C-alpha cells in the first residue's frame, strides 16, 4: 500500500520493535486484552466513523517529522511506555491557552504544541483505522453470499489489501499513541489560582509561628551537639555505607522512636489510618506518582536486575495501595498516616545545606496521604497544613508556612505549602515539611477512581444503568515528621548552656520519661 | 629468565583478565610495603628447586574447585586468615569442614599456602641478590665489570617482576580459597544435619484452644491488619502493608524490645540500610551470585542489608579498640531486606518469610575468652523476652551442618505458631568468634601484656582480634505471627500481652472492626 512508504523504514522499524513486545496498554486503550488485535475492535464504539483520507498522508508521515522535533530527552524517545496515564487530551485541546500559560508559569519543559499535534494525528489515524475496518466488514459481508468465482477472487484480493493496510495503520496508531503519552505525561498539573507565579523567591508567606529563641551562650549546630552527646555517628557510616549516611546512637534512637510514635498517635487521633509500607516498589508505581526513577539525575535508588526501586517517600506505596481500582464514594475520604524509611540518592546535592543530617540518603518519615472527592481537595489541603502547624508548634518550633511559587511546584502538585523551621545552629530556616494537593494528576496515572452515588440525573448519556460514571479521586500528601530535620530542630533549638538538650514535653511519654539529654560523663 | 617460561604464557594471560587485577596489591605502592613486611617475618632460605614446581601454574588450573568460574575473581579485600594455624591444625580443620558440610577445599588452601611461602622466599632471595649487586655498584668499578653488574641487575629485576606478579596471583587465589573455610565449631555443637540439633530448653506449653484457630493471615484479614494484595501489585509478592493496630504492634514490639535490652547495658543504634558490598562479604554473607539473599543497588557497589549485624559489625571496622572499651554491646534497629531467592512452600505463607521487615538485633564485640559467656547472656536475654510475652518455645543448639560459615556456635529459638500448626524460628544467637573480626579488621590491644615481649613494640602488647556475637532480639513479622496466632480469642479478637500495652497507648485487645 501507498501509505507504507511514508513510514520511513528503519525508524519505524525501531519503533515497532519497541512497541509490540511487553506492551501493556493500560485502561484507555486495551482494557480487555493482551493482544494487539482486540484493542482496535473497541474503537468503533468509542468514536463516530468518519473518514478523512485526505489527511492521512500528512498524518502518517509520522516518523521523520517526529524525529526532527526537538526534545530534551532524545534518547528516551523510543523507549516503550510501560503504562498509560488517563490524560484528558480533549480537555487539554479545549483549554490550550490556559495549559500553555501554566506550562510557562511552572517553567516546565513540556511541549504543548507537540502534544496537540500528536493528538490530532492520533485522532486522524484512529478514524482511518475505523474506516478501513468498516470497509473490510463490507467486503466480508459480501463474501457471505453466493458469488461468481471471479468476483469472489476479486473480493479476496480486496480484503487482503485492506487487511494489510489496516495492519500498518494499527501499528502506526500505536506508535502515535505512545508518543502522545510520552509527551503528554510531561505536562504538569494545573495550578491553583492563588499560587504565586514565579520562582522560589515569589513564594508567599502564609503564616509565621513562634519566634527565634534567644541564646545567651555560643550555640552549637546539630553536628557538634550530636558529637558531644554521642548521638550521631557519621564517620563509621561513611566507611560502611558512604557519605551522607549515619548511625543514630543512644538518646537519638529514643528520640527518633518518640517522634514517630508521637506523630502517628497525634495523626491517627484525627482519623487517619496508620500504615507501615513496603520500601521496595515497582518502578512503574514510582513513575505513576510523578517521580523519575531512571536517568542521570534521578533521586531514586534502583534494585539491580529487577524493575524495582527504593521509595523516596511513603507517598509512593500509599499512592499505590488503591491503584487500578474504583472506590465507593462512601469510602472517601481515605486518610492514611504512613511510616517508612525513605531512600534518596541526592544526586547533585552539595554545599552547606547538605551538612550533617540536613540532606541524607536514608531517613525515617511519617507521611500523611488523603484520597478524596475532587470538590474536597482544597479543604483537605488546609486540614493537612493545619495538622503540620499544630504538630510543629506543640514541639515549640519557630517556623513559617509558605504558599510555594509556581516554578517551585513539582509536576504533580496543584498547590504546595512548605514549612520552614528555624535552625539556630545552621543559622537559617530549613524546610521540614511539605503539603501538596495533586488533584487528579496521580490518580489519572495510578488509575484510582470512585463512583459517585445517587447521580442518575446528572449524566445519563454515559452511565450504564443507574450507575454514575466513575471519576478520578484527588490525592494529597503531607509530611508529618521527617525525622532527621526534626532532630536538627530539636537539638539546635533546645540546647542548653551546659551542653545538654531538653526534650519537649509532648515527646517525653514516648522517651520513657527522658526529659533531658546530658553529656556522657567520661 | 628461565623461570618465566614456566609460567605458561598464553594460558596464564587468558585466564587473568587484566582488569581483574585492579585492587591495591598490584599497584607498586602497596606491593613494596607488603613485601617488605614479609621480609621481617621470614628468614631468607633458598629452596630453589621448589620454585619450578611452585610456578607451574597449570597444576593450579587443573585442581578441581567447586567454584570454577569464580576462581580468578580478584578479591577486593583480604581477611587476616591465620594460615599457619590452619596448616598446623590440618586434621581438626578437615574434620570441621566435613562436619559442617562445607565446600571449602582445605588441600588446595594448604597447597597454595606452601606455594606462596616458597615464592615469597624466592622473592626475598632475589631481592637480596639485587641489593648485593646494587651495593657492589656503589664502589669504583672497571667499565666491563660495571657493565656485567648492570646486566646482572637487569636480569634479577626482570625475574623479580615476574615473581612478584606470581606472588600476588597466588596470594589472591589463596585468599579466595581460604575465605571459604568456615569458622571452627564449639566442641559441644552436635555433629550432623538439622535433625541433629539438640534441644537445650523448652519453655511454656502450647496454648489450648476451645475453638477452631485461625492462622495469622486470616486474623490479619479479619482484623484489617495486613494487606498482602495491594503490596503484591505495588511491590511484588512477599511484600505487605501493616495497617491499623498492626502498626502500633510493630512499634510497641520495637520500643519494648529496645527498652528491655538497653536496660541490660546495650547501646541503642539505628543503622544505615544501604552498605558497601565489601562489608556484607566481610560479615560472611554473599552479596553476589545466583542465589544471593542480598538486594544490590544498581550502578553502585552498595547493597541493602539483610540484617543490622552487617552495619553494626562494620561500625568498628579497621580499628584497634582499647581493652577497657570491651565488651561493646549494641542493640540496633533496622529494616532488613532479603530476596529470599529459592524460598518456596508453605513455610513462606503470610508474614513468615518476607522481603522486608523490621528487626532489633543485639551485637557484642568482646575479648576472645569472654565470647562463650556472652553467647549465654544473649540467649538468656532472648529467653527472657520471649517468655515475658508468654510464648511457648524451644531453644536449640544447632547442629554443625546447620551453621553458617561465620558461626562457631548457634542457638535458635523456635516458637509455637498454632495457626501454622508448627514451631517456627523466631530468633538466632551466634558466636562468630574471630571469623568476622579477621575480615572486618577489628582488634583490641590487651593491657598489661608485658608477657609477650618478643612481638611487642615497646610496652604495647600486640593487638588481638575481638570476638563478635549477634542475636535477634525481635524480628517483627514472626513476633506478629506468634502474637496473633497465640492470643486469638473465640470472638475473633486478639489480646495484647501485658508488657506491650504501655507501648500501645494502653491498647489491650485488637477487635474486629464493626463495619
What are the key terms here?
heterodimer; A: 522 residues; alpha+beta; three-stranded mixed β-sheet; 17% strand; disordered N terminus; B: 515 residues; 16 helices
Task: Give the gist of this structure.
The complex is a heterodimer of chains A (522) and B (515). Chain A is an alpha+beta fold and 522 residues long. Helix content of chain A is 37%, strand content 17%.
How would you describe the overall organization of this protein?
- The complex is a heterodimer of chains A (522) and B (515).
- Chain A has 522 residues and is of the alpha+beta class.
- Chain A has 16 helices and 17 strands.
- In chain A, strand 11 (415-423) and strand 12 (428-437) form a beta hairpin.
- In chain A, helix 7 runs antiparallel to helix 8 and helix 11 (251-268) packs across helix 16 (483-493).
- By secondary structure, chain B is an alpha+beta fold.
- In chain B, the strands form 5 sheets. In chain B, strands 1-10-11-12-15-9-8-4 form an 8-stranded mixed β-sheet. Chain B has a 3-stranded mixed β-sheet with strand order 7-13-14. Chain B has a two-stranded antiparallel ribbon with strand order 2-3.
- Mean pLDDT of chain B is 84; it is low at 1-71.
- At the A-B interface, helix 10, strand 3, helix 11, strand 4 and strand 5 of A face helix 10, strand 3, helix 11, strand 4 and strand 5 of B.
